[in-house]
Design goal:
Blueprint (H helix, E strand, L loop, with lengths): L12 H4 L31 H7 L15 H6 L20 H8 L6 E5 L21 E5 L2 H7 L6 E5 L6 H8 L9 H5 L3 H9 L4 E6 L4 H10 L3 E4 L5 H41 L11 E7 L10 E7 L5 E8 L4 H19 L4 H15 L7 E8 L5 E7 L5 E3 L6 E2 L20 E4 L4 E6 L16 H14 L4 H16 L7 E8 L2
Helix pairs in contact: 11-12
């Protein structure tokens, strides 16, 4: 078992001596010990084989190490201070600037090999990427070293499935049983080391290495999460290089596809939620016709800070409301839903006018996330005979009334009260309005009137909106067609989508 070493900063393989550089002209080359080193460190010794195997050519800059063979000292299992894998630089002590220069070297791929091979058998041959440049290879003999060497510039992990699983994983797999990690538990956890690596590096491509006689285990590794498996005794440079590139691209594709699927799922859930939060008018038994248009200002959203509702109480009175929470984000949309539900509950409970708005203000004050958030609101209650209506305005634009033979006009707004949430103890006078036998009443939010007209800074405004609706009514438009035409024309005048949320409600009564 390797001797624990102090945790150091993550050092690129070239810097820590694991991947000695090769000059651009010479191509892959093995690191050689300089003259005068200790005989035990000479390349011709038995212990030099792991070094030759592990220190594949991976860079294009000259090596400046002192010649102390970090792999030789580590191969004895003593974990001395010259082990480059501990993060101790045996070279000249490169600075941050040097590391920046190293990262700019023309090396496309970096591979981390995790395998325990004391004999030094060359599992990984010389590797070249698609452009013919050497692939950088880092080597870790256990998962602890792998965790230190697994930096952001690693693209692929080569994992020898013969590597011993960490003891804690075996103990956890026992589930508190006999604790010996043998028998059925051992069979069940034969891929425990792979599972550990996948948890350690969820964003990296993983290639599993196994023997040619254990193809079933390789297939199981792919099922667990590896991108592919290879037979270690049949590897050659071209095959492994191609497999590494394939694994990296497959991992990127899988990650992108998973993110896309997750995004689509979230969007579908949001649409279902927002669609469920939109109101269903309660007008059973009423002769009035209802139409509405709703467009949130947020991209791809179904719900904004605007809200509306229409209900008919048991006495035959039809109550309609439209409101606007300042802002147009998800928090404002949620607050708008709360206010709409509260309004419906209070209306069905028999509240109306000033008393209802005062209670709604209390709801707003308790539910808003900031004291500066407010909401405007327009509420009308239409008598059972449909000829009269009460009107309460809380900082909101006045409704538009149209009747046969008369030009459309705005209802009086002289007694407009303050927006909800601005003034504690505020009052909202209720105005009585004569509607007549046949009429059309349009309630709207400021998104309909605050769009621009052309490329300048001029806005449509209430006067422009009134003129537009008058012209559309003269063309014979009514109901859904009228609202659709109004919203489309406002968008066209604005030169595209409106920045603010928009809601429009239309109530019609025919004689």
């Amino acid at each position: 078992m390797p001797v624990p070493v102090p945790r150091q900063r993550a050092i690129p393989a070239v810097e820590c001596g694991q991947a000695p550089a090769a000059s651009p002209d010479s191509g892959p080359s093995k690191e050689q010990a300089p003259p005068g080193t200790h005989p035990a460190e000479h390349p011709t010794t038995r212990r030099e084989n792991p070094t030759e195997k592990r220190e594949k050519p991976t860079d294009t800059s000259p090596d400046t190490s002192t010649g102390t063979d970090s792999r030789t000292s580590t191969g004895t299992g003593t974990g001395t201070g010259t082990d480059s894998r501990t993060g101790t630089d045996t070279g000249t002590g490169r600075t941050h600037t040097d590391r920046t220069t190293q990262s700019a070297a023309p090396t496309n791929l970096t591979v981390l090999l995790i395998e325990d091979d004391p004999a030094g058998s060359p599992i990984v041959p010389d590797l070249l990427d698609q452009a013919g440049k050497p692939i950088r290879v880092r080597t870790a003999r256990n998962l602890t070293e792998a965790g230190r060497l697994l930096t952001d510039d690693v693209h692929c992990i080569l994992l020898d499935l013969a590597l011993s699983a960490p003891a804690p994983a075996r103990t956890s797999a026992d589930g508190g049983g006999n604790g010996n990690g043998s028998g059925d538990d051992e069979d069940h956890d034969e891929l425990a080391v792979l599972r550990h690596v996948l948890e350690l590096a969820p964003r990296h491509a993983v290639l599993a290495l196994t023997s040619s006689s254990d193809a079933e285990r390789g297939a199981e590794a792919v099922a667990v999460g590896a991108q592919d498996y290879l037979f270690r005794d049949e590897l050659d440079g071209r095959l492994l290089s191609r497999a590494i590139r394939y694994a990296v691209e497959r991992k990127r594709s899988d990650s992108a596809e998973r993110r896309l699927a997750e995004g689509r799922l979230r969007a579908q859930e949001n649409r279902r939620l927002e669609r469920g939060l939109l109101p269903t008018p309660l007008l059973a038994g009423s002769p009035l016709r209802f139409a509405a248009r709703y467009r949130p200002g947020r991209s791809r959203a179904l719900l904004g800070g605007d809200f509306y509702d229409v209900v008919r109480t048991p006495d035959g009175t039809v109550h309609a409301m439209i409101g606007d929470v300042c802002g147009h984000g998800p928090d404002e949309a949620a607050l708008g839903v709360e206010l709409r539900i509260a309004w419906r509950a209070l209306t069905l409970a028999g509240l109306c006018g000033d008393e209802l708005l005062g209670t709604l203000q209390q709801v707003l004050e308790h539910e808003r996330s900031d004291d500066e958030i407010f909401a405007t609101l327009c509420a009308v209650d239409i008598s059972p005979d449909g000829r009269r209506a009460g009107l309460c305005l809380a900082g909101h634009p006045s409704p538009l009334l149209s009747r046969p033979g008369e030009p459309a006009r705005l209802l009086p707004y002289d007694n407009n009260g303050p927006a909800l949430g601005l003034l504690p103890g505020a009052r909202w006078p209720r105005m009585q309005v004569e509607l007549g036998a046949e009429w059309s009443l349009m309630l709207y939010t400021d998104g309909l009137i605050e769009g621009h007209v052309g490329e300048g800074r001029e806005r449509l405004g209430q006067e422009g909106m009134v003129e537009m609706v008058r012209r559309q009514l003269a063309e014979g438009l009514a109901g859904e067609e009228l609202l659709r035409a109004a919203v489309n024309e406002v968008r066209e005048l604005n030169g595209g989508e409106l920045a603010d949320d928009l809601a429009v409600v239309l109530l019609d009564r025919t004689a």
